């Protein structure tokens, strides 16, 4: 049979669509979706035929051109086309807040609440008790106040948005003093100097990369009178100066400066702020709510930092707090009130799904024991080495059972917090090193990554490691299943 004859045998879209299986499928998935799939299958067949070298046409499987076969292929195609681009996977890297893998996984109650609140109508902006309009800004502020001791709180899209609205509200047209050692970039294009410029505040850099003293901050303060007068040091040299709006401290979330260093602590900055009557802003970033130093995590936490007297503080919802992406601003009533009224508040406001997840997550913190037990990020940080080892053994056993060609070896690893938090912290953990005789670790990595449920591990010194700290107990069978399909 020659190519022309093969092309003639290609079925018509309408005829394929009349196949009973597709009539039913179209009712479920919609005509357009199914027609598109049929069209794609036929187009692929046509291209395949046109590509044939003439004498290969003889051997072409003409049965695959039958209407029934094309309909079957179209059904598969529909399933294929329905695959979402955002889907769950297994994090076997041992990095808890993996920026590329969605940062913090949510606790069960947060997910349940998202489902429950977003499936129906909700009290998002309605005060049910009083029967009047409510504000979404008030939904979690009571709880945040209770947990942190803040006077007031507000939630926006993420910490970058929080920084933006804080600087725009407090600093527009005035100066904000920041140490040169803290002019950070937090991944992507979030750079403090850029955000500052966008907010309309003027950045006043003080100190040097490795040392910034209290006196550096103090000497940079410009009062209202100085800003107006020619006495101002900057005006003499020609550079305009503006009144100081605030002092800002930025937590060094994703790097550390070691060696000959000095930084001015929050307490000292608060003293300077009080003395000169200017607010102190603290971009603390990580959102840690508990003291977790006993687990090797010596990071500032929200209640302690607020207790030191900062006026406004912001942090992420999906880092060490372990909740949804959000930026939480806490602090003095007058400042938070001004931010809620700022035009940016509307642009940066969060959705009901975020509030639902955040409220349920925060609720856990009313008892720190519950938070440590139920919030995945905290549980992963706190998990003991023995418990990790036991899970590594269970994983190795399950993999060997599923596929006897895979060699498993249990090995010690160092896990990380990740997500731009606590860069120097290494958590002692356990991994299963998996290998296949004569095959490379790269090949193994690819196969795991391309599985139906992708498993993302870590290659270290040519070994494929599955770090169990970030693998949940109920994911062990899923990982084993991937090896069964190898
Ligand atoms: C992570 C971080 C940010 C950015 O927070 P997002 O929630 O990712 O927008 C800003 N500042 C600091 C100090 C951070 O650690």
Would you mind describing this structure in some detail?
The chain is an alpha/beta fold and 486 residues long. The chain folds into three domains: 80 residues, no CATH class; 113 residues, Aspartate Aminotransferase, domain 1 (Alpha-Beta Complex), CATH 3.90.1150.180; 267 residues, 3-Layer(aba) Sandwich (Aspartate Aminotransferase, domain 2). 43% of the residues lie in helices and 17% in strands. The chain contains 22 helices and 15 strands. The chain has a seven-stranded mixed β-sheet with strand order 4-10-9-8-7-5-6, with helices on both faces. A four-stranded antiparallel β-sheet has the order 11-12-15-14. Strand 7, helix 13 and strand 8 form a beta-alpha-beta unit. The radius of gyration is 29 Å and the shape is globular. The two termini are 38 Å apart. The mean pLDDT is 94. The site of pyridoxal-5'-phosphate has 15 residues, from helix 8 and strand 8.
Essential attributes:
486 residues, alpha/beta, Aspartate Aminotransferase, domain 1, Aspartate Aminotransferase, domain 2, seven-stranded mixed sheet, 22 helices, binds pyridoxal-5'-phosphate
What's the quick description here?
This protein has 486 residues and is of the alpha/beta class.
**At the first level of CATH, what is the class of the largest domain?**
Alpha Beta
Lateral arrangement of strands in the main beta sheet: 4-10-9-8-7-5-6
- Please indicate the count of domains: 3
Record field, number of beta strands:
15
Sequence-ordered SSE layout with sheet pairings:
Blueprint: H1 3-9, H2 13-17, H3 20-29, H4 31-51, H5 67-81, E1 90-91, H6 108-119, E2 126-127, E3 132-133, H7 141-148, E4 152-156, H8 159-171, E5 175-179, H9 192-199, E6 202-206, H10 214-220, H11 224-228, H12 233-237, E7 244-250, H13 266-276, E8 280-285, H14 302-307, E9 312-316, E10 327-331, H15 333-341, H16 343-347, H17 352-364, H18 368-374, H19 376-382, H20 385-402, E11 406-418, E12 421-436, H21 441-449, E13 455-456, E14 458-460, E15 463-467, H22 476-484
Parallel strand pairs: 1-13, 5-6, 5-7, 7-8, 8-9
Antiparallel strand pairs: 2-3, 4-10, 9-10, 11-12, 12-15, 14-15
Helix pairs in contact: 3-4, 4-5, 6-17, 8-9, 18-19, 20-22
Bound molecules: pyridoxal-5'-phosphate.
Pyridoxal-5'-phosphate binds next to helix 8 and strand 8.
């Amino acid at each position: 049979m020659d190519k022309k004859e093969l092309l003639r045998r290609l079925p018509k879209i309408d005829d394929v669509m009349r196949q009973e299986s597709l009539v039913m499928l179209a009712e479920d998935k919609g005509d357009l979706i199914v027609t598109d799939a049929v069209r794609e299958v036929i187009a692929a067949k046509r291209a395949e035929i046109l590509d044939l070298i003439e004498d290969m046409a003889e051997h072409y499987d003409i049965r695959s051109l039958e209407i029934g076969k094309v309909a079957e292929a179209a059904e598969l195609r529909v399933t294929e086309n329905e695959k979402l681009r955002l889907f769950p996977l297994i994090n076997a890297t041992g990095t808890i807040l993996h920026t590329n893998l969605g940062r913090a996984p949510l606790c069960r109650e947060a997910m349940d609440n998202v489902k429950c609140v977003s499936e129906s109508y909700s009290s998002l902006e309605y005060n049910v008790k009083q029967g009047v309009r409510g504000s979404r800004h008030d939904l979690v502020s009571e709880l945040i106040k209770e947990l942190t001791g803040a006077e007031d709180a507000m939630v926006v899209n993420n910490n970058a948005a929080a920084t933006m609205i804080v600087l725009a509200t407090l600093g527009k047209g005035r100066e904000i003093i920041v140490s040169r050692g803290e002019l950070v970039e937090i991944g992507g294009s979030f750079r403090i100097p850029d955000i500052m410029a966008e907010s309309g505040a003027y950045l006043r850099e003080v100190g040097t990369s490795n040392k910034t003293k209290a006196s550096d901050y103090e000497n940079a303060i410009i009062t209202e009178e100085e800003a107006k007068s020619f006495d101002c040091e900057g005006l003499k040299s020609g550079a305009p100066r503006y009144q100081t709006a605030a002092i800002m401290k930025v937590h060094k979330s994703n790097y550390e400066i070691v060696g000959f260093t000095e930084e001015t602590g929050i307490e000292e900055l608060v003293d300077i702020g009080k003395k000169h009557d200017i607010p102190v802003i603290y971009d603390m970033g990580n959102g840690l709510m508990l003291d977790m130093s006993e687990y090797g995590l010596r990071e500032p936490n929200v209640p302690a930092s607020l207790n030191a007297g900062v006026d406004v503080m912001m942090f992420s919802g999906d880092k060490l707090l372990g909740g949804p992406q959000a930026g939480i601003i806490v602090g003095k009533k007058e400042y938070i009130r001004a931010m809620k009224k700022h035009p940016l508040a509307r642009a940066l406001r969060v959705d009901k799904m975020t509030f639902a997840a955040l409220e349920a997550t925060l609720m856990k913190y009313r008892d720190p024991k519950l938070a440590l037990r139920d919030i995945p990020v905290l549980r992963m940080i706190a998990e003991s080495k023995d418990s990790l080892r036991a899970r590594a053994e269970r994983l190795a056993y399950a993999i060997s059972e599923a596929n006897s060609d895979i060699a498993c070896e249990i090995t010690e690893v160092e896990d990380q917090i990740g997500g731009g938090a606590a860069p120097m912290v290494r958590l002692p953990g356990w991994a299963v090193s998996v290998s296949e005789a004569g095959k490379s670790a790269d090949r193994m990595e690819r196969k795991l990554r391309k599985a139906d449920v992708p498993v993302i591990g870590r290659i270290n010194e040519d070994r494929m490691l599955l770090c169990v700290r970030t693998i949940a107990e109920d994911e062990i069978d899923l990982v084993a299943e991937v090896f069964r399909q190898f």
